[in-house]
Each structure stands twice: as C-alpha cells, then as structure tokens.
Design brief:
Layout lengths: L29 H8 L5 H15 L10 H12 L2 H8 L8 H7 L4 H14 L4 E9 L4 E8 L7 H17 L6 E5 L5 E5 L16 E5 L21 H11 L8 H7 L4 H10 L4 H17 L6 H7 L5 H12 L3 H11 L19
Antiparallel strand pairs: 1-2, 2-5, 3-4, 3-5
Helix pairs in contact: 3-4, 4-7, 5-12, 8-11, 9-10, 11-13, 12-13
C-alpha cells in the first residue's frame, strides 16, 4: 500500500514541515518534470496563475523558466505547507475558464471529483485522484492521490491538488468545505475549514489521502421554462439543445431530458422525429456546435475542447466532429487561424440531415 512508503520531496520523507531538503544530484529531465507536473487542468493557465501569485506574495522565490513542482517546493521550504495549499486554491482566479466551468457544472461534490478524474485521464496525467469512500448521508468523501506508474509523488503535489479541488468545489458553489488528513494517532488533522487554524506546523506522515466534507444542501438543477411543443420546426430540438449545452459533461438521458422540458418521454421522441432528428443526434450536434465555438479560443488545446464538450476521448471528438463538418477539428482550427474567422456554409453543424456524407 503506497501510503506506507516514503514520499519524494526532493529527498525528504513524509511528515512535517521542519525537514531540510536534500538537492537532487542530477536534475530531472525536462520532459519528466513536465509529465509529472503538467498533467492537471489546463497547464499553461494554471502555471500562469501560480507564478503570478508567487511573484506577488513571495517575491524572493524565482519563477521564470521553472516548473511548478520546483516553485512549490521552494515555497514550502521557506514558508511551510499552508501556502502550498493556498496556491492550489488560487485556481479560483480561472473561474471563467471553459474547463473550470465544465468541472463546476456538476450537481454534487462527487460528480465534480469524477469530472476531475476524467480530466486527469484526458490529460494522460501520471497522477490520478481516486475515490476511496463516499458517504452521502454524512456529506463526505475520502480521496487518494496516486501515481499510476507506481512512482513517488511529492508532498507539495498532494497539497497543491487538495487546494485545487477545494478551489473547484468552492467555485461550484458548495459550502462548509472541510478537508482533513489522518494522523498516526488516528485523529483527523484539519488542513482547510473547521479547525484548520489549529493544525500543527508539521504535517501527518500521510498526505496522499484526504477526507472532504461539506454542507449537505443539494443544488437543484435550474428549471427549464415551459413552452408549447407546437409551432415552428425545430422548437423542441432547440429547447433540448439549450438544455444540453448547459452541461455537456452530464450523462443526458431521454427520460431526464423530457422531465426537464416538462414533456413525456414519448412526446419528446415524437417531436424530435417530426423534426427529422433523434435524441442522440441532437446530443451529438450540441457537442459539435459547442466544440466549434471553442476552437476559436487559441488558449484552449484540442484536449480542452474535447473535455469541455463531453466527448469520451480525443479520438471520439475527432471522429464525431469530422462526421458533421467534413474536416477534423485540428484542420478547422488551422483554417480559423489563417482566415481570422471561418463560418461553414451550412451553419455550425448540419442541421437537417444528419452527419455529412462523402
């Protein structure tokens, strides 16, 4: 069990903020550092926020040309573990970022963390967040931060990720958040919320397992205004698309969508059929339309776009996008860049007759 083995902190074992770090004799290769540290969220945006906050709050710590782990380690060496957790919470500055909005659209803390885990998989991160336990009645869950290759994770990475998850849950509107680590004595050491101000300067030996709790109020999904299903062609389809676009990462079903639209399942099916489409086709169109809109944002990677629009992986995104637009998303982005803006002759996605045919 990995939690009983030492954690890599530039030569230090786990536990405490009073240790003296030993420097690595041979610097880690740049590509290894990138693999270790850049696999969460949108790395460029998150790194920019991290470096800006460190430059502002800890001007004595250099940030230019350095990776996140090295910066976080220096912060912890000089100022203890609390600032590292708070640097993860600085992600709140990216509340308008499409990836963070997609994460925060989840309706429960568990769903939010599940989306985070999906993002880690999308980014092929060597570090993953795993659910250990979820107690709905007590509004709490326990998570473990693991290295999928069996390697070592530095304590600063644990703390930073716990801070990032706190930021995501706070941005999503969940309140009363408390995060604790287990100590050797069995007592919980609260590192955020609650009695966190009383937490010792020295961390427990295990930092890769954290328990999150929150106020058990459940956010209800926003109601969809009722409208007659009669009228112009496309009205029901358009209402359904507006519903889906509100959260493309949600696992939409025909039954739930009909309930949200104040329709029966059969009425929704029949209306879509009369408009020349189906439920699954409408969902795919919604994703492709949204993806095309995001492709114009050069700060987003294609992986970001695929994640934000609810595709299962990059291959699924490329395959589906090409069915509707004749070209893969990478090619359309290049056309957008070269032309400044590009609108397909028949709209964001073919509206009437299904996928494009060759």
């Amino acid at each position: 069990m990995r939690s009983s083995s030492p954690r890599s902190r530039t030569g230090a074992t786990r536990g405490g903020a009073s240790w003296k770090p030993a420097r690595l004799r041979t610097p880690l290769p740049e590509d290894l550092l990138t693999m270790e540290d850049q696999g969460v969220m949108t790395s460029a945006a998150l790194s920019a926020v991290l470096k800006a906050v460190v430059a502002r709050d800890y001007p004595g710590i250099p940030t230019e040309g350095r990776d996140k782990v090295a910066i976080l380690q220096d912060v912890m060496d000089a100022h203890g573990w609390r600032p590292v957790l708070e640097l993860g919470r600085a992600l709140r500055a990216l509340s308008s970022h499409p990836v963070l909005r997609a994460l925060c659209a989840a309706r429960t803390p568990l769903q939010t963390v599940e989306r985070w885990s999906t993002l880690e998989r999308f980014m092929h991160s060597r570090h993953r967040t795993r659910l250990v336990e979820h107690d709905l009645a007590r509004a709490r869950m326990t998570l473990r931060h693991v290295a999928i290759d069996g390697g070592r994770i530095r304590v600063v990475n644990d703390l930073f990720i716990w801070g990032v998850l706190i930021a995501i849950l706070e941005t999503a509107g969940f309140t009363g958040l408390k995060v604790s680590l287990a100590s050797a004595s069995g007592a919980a050491v609260v590192i955020h919320g609650g009695a966190s101000r009383l937490a010792p300067r020295k961390l427990p030996a295990v930092t890769d397992v954290a328990t999150f709790s929150w106020k058990p109020a459940r956010r209800a999904p926003a109601p969809v205004s009722e409208a007659s299903t009669k009228g112009a062609t496309g009205q029901v389809r358009d209402r359904l698309q507006r519903l889906m676009v509100g959260d493309l990462l949600h696992s939409w079903t025909l039954v739930e969508s009909a309930q949200r639209l104040a329709l029966s399942r059969r009425t929704l099916q029949r209306a879509l059929q009369e408009e020349g489409t189906t439920f699954s086709e409408t969902l795919q169109r919604s994703r492709v339309d949204a993806a095309q809109g995001l492709l114009g944002d050069s700060s987003l990677t294609l992986t970001d776009v695929a994640f934000c629009t609810g595709f299962s992986d990059q291959a699924h995104f490329t395959r589906t996008f090409r069915r509707y637009n004749d070209v893969p998303p990478s090619a359309l982005r290049e056309l957008m860049r070269s032309a400044g803006s590009l609108r397909l002759s028949d709209g964001p996605a073919r509206r009437g007759g299904g996928p494009a045919t060759r």
